[in-house]
Amino acid sequence: MTKTPVHRLLHPTRLLINLTGLAGSSNTTGDDQKKLDVIGNDIFVSAMRGSGKCRILVSEEEEEVIKFDEHPNARYAVVCDPIDGSSNLDAGVSVGTIFGIFQLPDEILGAGKTVGPEALLLPGTQMVAAGFTMYGASAQLVITMRGGGVQGFTLENSLGEFILTHPNMQLPPKRSIYSVNEGNSSYWDKWCTEYFHSLKFPAEGKPYSARYIGSMVADAYRTLLYGGIFAYPADSKTPKGKLRILYECAPMAMLFENAGGMAVNSRMERLLSVVPESIHDRSGVFLGSKDEVQKVIDTYNKYH
Ligand code: AHM
Ligand code: MG
Fold first, then answer.
1. Quick one: which atom of ligand 1 is closest to the CA of 212?
2. Ligand 2 centre and the CA of 29: distance in Å?
3. 3-state SS class at 220
4. ipTM attached to this prediction
């Protein structure tokens, strides 16, 4: 039997019939209808199971880890957000799938060995690969390996394959674009407020442009292409931040670093070295061009 490649299964156009279905509701034939993020999760889980290479999986949609005990020698652990930005789906905004891949140590491989969530409480530096897809006007796949470059592919529908269209992606060192949910600004720390104020009211030169889609894959993709800064700071309302370390922050941080950018949390620590306390742990995040992230750090340091 020939297998349908996972990117074809995941592309939302294949799933349009279920796009507005509410989880738990029924369609006319009595089958359960599911929201796209539930469907995306189901597809991702079965693709990982079917690969035979994945021992354990963390998904944003699943409270607990999923273990593939039928593959005791599979040496990879995968973390994923199956449909990031799903709150935007009904408005037709780009969404995507974020993933990271860790290689498990030999000691925990093999029949009779157990593997649990603690095996995944690792810094992003331990990932062997990370990336995301974005389902928009076109479908993009951006991927990097540890210590390697960042490669961007575009889905060519007629072939059903991703074609390398953006080889060796590199962020420009600076660009006057910022991307943040300013609706949260009343909750920000003082240094954070000062930083964004300085972009809008610079002592000299033109103010920055604002661009915020509210779908991390889309905001991150634009920032990778054009440069600038994307941020979701920790604040007094969400002191740990909103975005998840394992399957949102760390994969993006690896991509940004490998494309010549920088990625830090709200304490200005290198995001890739942060160890999550639990599989769904969160963090503040600043990703972007080197000079732009350095400005964040400089402003933070004035207050600490
Ligand atoms: P999700 O994983 O539930 O979709 O949430 C993550 C999304 C990111 O894609 C995006 O950067 C952020 O949440 C937007 O949040 P807000 O609507 O608070 O600006
Ligand atoms: Mg998400």
1. 19
2. 32
3. helix
4. 0.97
